[in-house]
Design brief:
The chain is elongated. The N and C termini lie far apart (about 45 Å). With about 220 residues, the chain is mainly alpha-helical. About 80% of the residues lie in helices and about 0% in strands. It has eleven helices and no strands.
């Protein structure tokens, strides 16, 4: 890994590294990746560009570390939710809620730009494939718990939803509707279609509560 491997990672160096990653991740998410330069990140941190390059040798290496951090935080959240939830649907709804909030706070350019960094994009594809396998396992457990239909091929449905989200990243649909509105439409329609009556009742309770919170938050 090209992140200053030849230098001793002292506490101050580790702290600086964390600050760089946090600042870069926020900047990339807010403005997109291409529009943020290493100069911008150094300036935001009040450090020299030379110091920044001593810690991260290039922008793609920094971006890779930013996404690893985001993934680690996501994994920790999944573990926390899973330990507290009483059923699979509750876990999935909380995870979808978090993903909706993340998308809401992320500039669409971020998703467009990330494809221009081959190593990072390859890492994302591998991670997405792993996540898909875990999601399908969740759905199978949801069938046993009575929340999801047992006549659905979840491998196909999960692939279709993934393709819809990819299409969303590459169309002008969000010029007419907000990204958040389109994403919600995809996810909620998807979940309604695979739910049993028991699951549908739970889902509608969640959607109603979620929208009330969002409306309250926007006032």
């Amino acid at each position: 890994m090209k992140t200053g491997d030849n230098m001793k990672e002292t506490p101050s160096r580790l702290e600086l590294r964390e600050r760089i990653v946090d600042t870069a991740l926020q900047s990339f998410a807010t403005h997109g990746i291409k529009s943020i330069t290493m100069d911008d990140i150094a300036a935001a941190l009040g450090i020299s560009k030379r110091t920044l390059y001593e810690v991260f040798s290039d922008k793609e290496t920094l971006l890779m570390e930013c996404l690893r951090k985001a993934q680690d935080e996501g994994d920790a959240y999944v573990k926390e939710v899973y330990e507290k939830a009483s059923n699979v649907l509750e876990v999935l709804l909380k995870l979808y809620q978090r993903s909706i909030e993340k998308f809401h706070n992320t500039n669409k350019k971020f998703f467009e730009d990330i494809k221009k960094y081959p190593k990072v994009y390859d890492m994302l594809i591998k991670r997405r494939n792993r996540d898909s396998e875990e999601t399908i396992a969740f759905f199978k457990l949801g069938i046993k718990q009575g929340y999801f239909r047992d006549d659905v091929n979840f491998s196909i449905v999960n692939l279709l939803v993934r393709e819809q989200l990819d299409l969303l990243m590459n169309t002008d649909l969000c010029k007419e509707y907000s990204f958040l509105e389109v994403y919600e439409s995809i996810m909620f329609t998807y979940l309604r279609g695979i739910s049993t009556e028991k699951g549908a009742r739970k889902l509608e309770e969640f959607i109603q509560e979620y929208r009330q919170k969002r409306q309250t938050g926007s006032e």
